Amino acid sequence: MYAKQTITGAEGEIVNFSCLGAMLQIVFNTTVPNIVLKSIEIKDETKPLSGKFTVDNEGKAVISADNAAAITLDLGENGKILGKGANYFYIAIPVGKYEDLTLTFTGTDKGTFVMTGGKLDIQHNTVGRLTLTGNKYHFHTIPGVFTVSSGTDGTEGTADDVKVQFSPGNLRYTIATQIWSFFPSQYDCGPATYADGHDKEISLFTWGYGWWSMIPDTKETLTFATEAGKSQKNFSPSNDWGGRLQDERTWRTLTLDEWKYIIEGRTDYKKKMAHATVCEVHGLIILPDSFEDPCTNVGQKAFVPLAEETNVVNNDVYKNNIYASVGDWTAMELAGAAFLPLTGMRTGDTIEWYAESGDYWTSTAQQVVENHHFRPTRLHFNTGNPGMPIDSGNSAFAVRLVTDVK
Q1: Fewest beta carbons within 10 Å, which of 153, 275, 363, 375?
Q2: What is the mean pLDDT of residues 325-346?
Q3: For the chain, what are the domain ranges?
């Protein structure tokens, strides 16, 4: 027996289902790739769970429960990337009667989708099938809203404001699959050395050179970029990585002026940024327009903004805000905080300043001298205040995308 229902993609949308049998077959039909599932939580609202639960997901996630209120099947560090088309899950559920079985699917960006079943009588090994169909199905960005451009009179809070949400992690490109995607968490930096995997999964990108900007960054394209006789006047005046992701949302790269507005243009901007350590990774926290510190609600140390940082000698500055566990950081993320890790830079096959410097491309190049060649710009920060230097264009930096809030 199976139920089929079309979903709209609304956050927290619920699908009702029922099945007869110990195996629940779930089919995600998607029209876009790169939807990433991280975990599946199973619970029965009326009683605790016992027995062995299994997900066959190209490798099995197995967990045993003994009078547990709920169990979570972890789909691995990188989660499960749903390709375009039909994607199948087989969840083995112990024999028994379930009065209100609920499955909650969570993405790597903490977005959730809930399936609730009601009464199920699991007796034998026939397959109950649930098909989820919907072009709009996706997980969501981190919830914080950031103003990146104020109204025409320079006043925030007008209809002319440009507001964005950040992607759930830095941009990456997997060479073997030719898929652009986001890292599973905001504090993922990519490999520390080229030999550690940057030749397989690229997370530091060079600026585009003409039509080369549409080709994934490799050592070969960098050789082209630095080859004798290739004038730097070939820099285009803008370069946006957003169009590389096949996602129904429109992703884009912040412009120079928008990054500058975030780090020095917002009201009380020094109270909306801070150096921090998140799960042992150093970086910069940027707070959304509206923020309520979750730490103060549970008696933990309050957020220390840039304007109030006390430990400012070398890496001690990252001790002002420490979120040691995933749980600690998740509370901040759900409150809307964005985190930019210190990713370093790459020149050729050499990665430098890893965990020491944060460098993120803007989409803007500028003319240093009138009628002269364009030079790309980037956000740069380490232990001091962030800035927006003009770059030579010979190195590769990280990319964090945003989507506009309508």
Answers
A1: 153
A2: 88
A3: 2-133, 146-404
